[in-house]
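[Discussion] Sanity-checking designs against the backbone

I'm trying to build intuition for which residues belong where. Below is a structure token string of 273 positions. I'd appreciate it if someone posts a full sequence so I can compare it with mine line by line.
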């Protein structure tokens, strides 16, 4: 009976996402004030700085980086694409995979101009912002595939999609808490994606704190598991990760723009046991 309840909760979450609107979601979360590169306290520059630091400390390395639940966004792999020679993006929704393909194939018609993001990450790396076309070229070069993923399956991607040894690093941003009906489902999903990671490989996890819903489009209210820092740490420990670092960002009042009720964001760097 309990299993049936779990399945129903996950099916209800999947149903919520059928009306997800990538263009609206990007407008809500990836334009100013949340993506204001002139402000040190803006949420997107904070996330980019966390990722840049994690990818350049020297301990995250290997051949294959996998992004779990990419959504329609690319910012989360703009630092990692310089470290890894192969990158796989994944998402549950075909509409998000199409959005990613449009940018990667340079077709035009993308819902967001990623140029300011590429420029900002170039600056973090000590390069001129005008070097952004080189970074865009590198990102397009290293992405080898865009795959369907279901973090609620014990095998989240197709069995032959990754090398037998697993990925060297996983990155996942605002995915697990946004697709899980409750904390135990979130924890199980963390365990499922861990199977894709080689022992000793790294997980870079960004997620919402204290969020119970967000809008995935006009009138598309999607429930979220409201997490706190202790729950994130506990879930990582239970699923076979050793936490290296946890950083927390608290949303300034003017970043609370009515598209969700998030109070903060966490960044966790962890290693698979």
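Best answer:
Here's mine. Compare freely.
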């Amino acid at each position: 009976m309990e299993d049936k309840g779990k399945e129903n909760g996950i099916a209800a979450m999947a149903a919520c996402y059928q009306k997800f609107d990538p263009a609206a979601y990007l407008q809500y979360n990836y334009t100013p004030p949340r993506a204001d590169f002139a402000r040190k306290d803006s949420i997107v520059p904070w996330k980019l700085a966390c990722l840049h630091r994690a990818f350049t400390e020297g301990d995250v390395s290997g051949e294959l980086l996998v992004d779990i639940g990419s959504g329609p966004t690319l910012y989360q792999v703009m630092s990692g694409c310089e470290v890894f020679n192969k990158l796989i993006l994944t998402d549950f929704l075909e509409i998000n995979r199409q959005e990613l393909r449009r940018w990667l194939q340079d077709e035009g018609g993308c819902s967001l101009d990623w140029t300011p993001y590429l420029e900002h990450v170039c600056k973090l790396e000590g390069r001129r912002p005008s070097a952004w076309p080189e970074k865009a070229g590198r990102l397009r070069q290293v992405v080898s595939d865009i795959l369907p993923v279901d973090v609620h399956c014990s095998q989240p991607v197709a069995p032959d999609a990754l090398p037998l040894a697993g990925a060297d690093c996983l990155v996942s941003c605002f995915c697990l808490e946004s697709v899980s009906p409750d904390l135990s489902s979130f924890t199980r999903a963390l365990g499922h994606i861990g199977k894709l990671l080689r022992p000793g490989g790294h997980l870079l996890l960004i997620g919402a704190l204290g969020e119970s819903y967000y809008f995935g489009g006009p009138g598309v209210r999607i429930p979220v598991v409201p997490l706190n820092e202790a729950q994130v740490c506990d879930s990582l420990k239970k699923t076979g990760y050793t936490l290296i670092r946890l950083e927390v960002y608290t949303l300034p009042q003017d970043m609370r723009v009515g598209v969700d009720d998030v109070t903060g964001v966490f960044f966790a760097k962890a290693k698979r046991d």
